[in-house]
Amino acid sequence: MHPNQALIEQFYRAFQKRDAEGMIACYHRDVTFSDSVFVGLDAAGARGMWRMLCERGKDLTLEFSDVRADDSTGSAHWEAHYSFSATGRHVHNVVDASFEFRDGKIARHTDRFDLWRWTRMALGPAGILLGWTPFLQGKVRAMATKGLAEYMAKNPERAGA
Known about the structure:
Radius of gyration: 15 Å
Largest sheet: 5 strands, mixed
Distance between the termini: 31 Å
Shape: globular
Number of strands: 5
Number of domains: 1
Pfam family, one: SnoaL_2
CATH architecture: Roll
Structural class: alpha+beta
Protein name: Nuclear transport factor 2 family protein
Oligomer: single chain
Low-confidence stretches: none
InterPro entries: NTF2-like_dom_sf, SnoaL-like
Helix content: 40-55%
């Protein structure tokens, strides 16, 4: 197994345990992260996001598969089941991840998932009717960004360090 493939598997095994510190240990100090909700996070933002999500994801279950990697890039497929904290609604998120590596760590992590599908599950009727619109998707991103900023401000010891 390529060392970068093992690194991705280590990352997801930590995620399965909601072990944010174990996930962060797989990241380069200058990592960047982006997905359909958290767009363009720097290293501090990425670390804070995983800490926040792992702390709040009390019923999170996760499966991962199709892990591939070489010297410079990698990919994986993962699926998470959890209750969205704002509504209590069940979400089954289906995600394809891509990675870039530097110095034996993950330097860039990008997750791709269908945000409209996510809004339908997480928000219910509003997501079904409006989840495809740039307006609602922008609102979801803004709420997530605000929630992460509040988490990091309230938990400076758990934030981006």
